[in-house]
Amino acid sequence: MKIYVKNMACESCKIFVKEALEELDITAIKIELGEIEVKEELTTGEKKKLNSKIKKAGLELLEKKQGILIEKIRSVIIDYVYNSDEKPVIKFSVLLSEKLNHSYTYLANFFSEIEASTIEQYVISLKVERIKELIILEEHTLSAIAFKLHYSSVSHLSNQFKKATGLTPTHFKNLKEKRRITIQNI
């Protein structure tokens, strides 16, 4: 049985879900971002218990098909922004279409209708938060960050960062209190 999970955006979320499943004696076959495959069909009571446990981490089980598709779109985008270091061979729109077996136009319109934001705006928001994270960690230069996040240049990264935050990356780096937004709140 497949179960879809809202806001499951990182490896620590997967670990949290795995532990919750183990506590409830539910056997997981596969745990991916936004999706869990369990061995047996869950009862309504088991679903409620699981949902209650994972809500502590800001996660939530999805039931409706609309929510499931939105979460699948988000999972692909998050994976693309956070786990894709190499320069993409294909355009992001093609990647998204291939992974979700829908045309990009359909996915973009659907996402905009439900989320009141475009896929592009969501990608930019995630990238800006990822840039903030990498700046705070101080492990990469802006050039390395630009390359890692598939920007054509440091200038492109800086312009997009400033447009989204009102600050240049350098000014952000020099702030005493770094303001970040969690993936779940984007």
UniProtKB/TrEMBL annotation:
The keyword Acetylation does not apply. PROSITE patterns: HTH_ARAC_FAMILY_2. Residues 75-175 form the HTH araC/xylS-type domain. PANTHER family: ARAC-FAMILY TRANSCRIPTIONAL REGULATOR (PTHR43280), HTH-TYPE TRANSCRIPTIONAL REGULATOR EXSA (PTHR43280:SF2). Keywords: DNA-binding, Transcription, Transcription regulation. The keyword DNA-binding applies. InterPro entries: Homeodomain-like_sf, HTH_AraC. One of its GO terms (molecular function) is sequence-specific DNA binding. This is AraC family transcriptional regulator. It comes from the Bacteria. The lineage of its organism: Bacteria, Pseudomonadati, Bacteroidota, Flavobacteriia, Flavobacteriales. Coiled coil: none annotated.
